[in-house]
Amino acid sequence: MSLRKLLLALSVPLLVALAAPTGPADAVRPEAGAHARAGIPRTYDAALAHFRNAEGYIRQYKRFTSPSGNIYCAVKVRGLPTGCEINEGAVRDPDVCRNNPASKYVGRVEFHGGHAVPVCNTDTIRMPGAPVLKYGDIARKGGFACLSEEIGVTCINLNEADGFFLHRGEYVTFNAG
Q1: What's the chain's average pLDDT?
Q2: How many whole angstroms separate alpha carbon 144 and alpha carbon 147?
Q3: What is the DSSP string of 99-139?
Q4: Following CA atoms 1, 175, 47, 117 in sequence, which dihedral angle do they give, to the nearest 10 degrees?
Q5: So where are the chain's domains?
Q6: Model-level pTM?
């Protein structure tokens, strides 16, 4: 078994165990970790550490908005790839947007083929009425999970050990392999 598959085999049960049905109707409180203001996750392992230290609830949300309203995410919504977009603070990225005549800014990160991909969007995935995912809470649906924090939103694909972080003016994509 490869190291990547071993790490994945160990991390998926941890996050699935956190989603056991207890607490409020659609939520479960994960075990609280050592609370410290963590920096931006730049690796899958760092993202997993953020999830382990989350002190909120796990919610079965298909879509949500951050408390600031600036980040909107779709998690396993029919007809949309799982991903998040930023309302203000898209990232100028000439390398990624080179062949896009309409936009030079990455405003969304989506999972395609299980991997996080920056998107130079001119459209939106936002739909009205999305619940707010409080800071410290995790939205989990299927093999995807997103964590809302004051520093931004981190989303991971539990089946591919891949993910991304998004906040105003910056995005990071990462994987374990």
Answers
A1: 83
A2: 10
A3: T-SS-SEE-EEEEETTEEEEE--SS----TTPPB--TT-EE
A4: -150
A5: 3-19+40-175
A6: 0.81
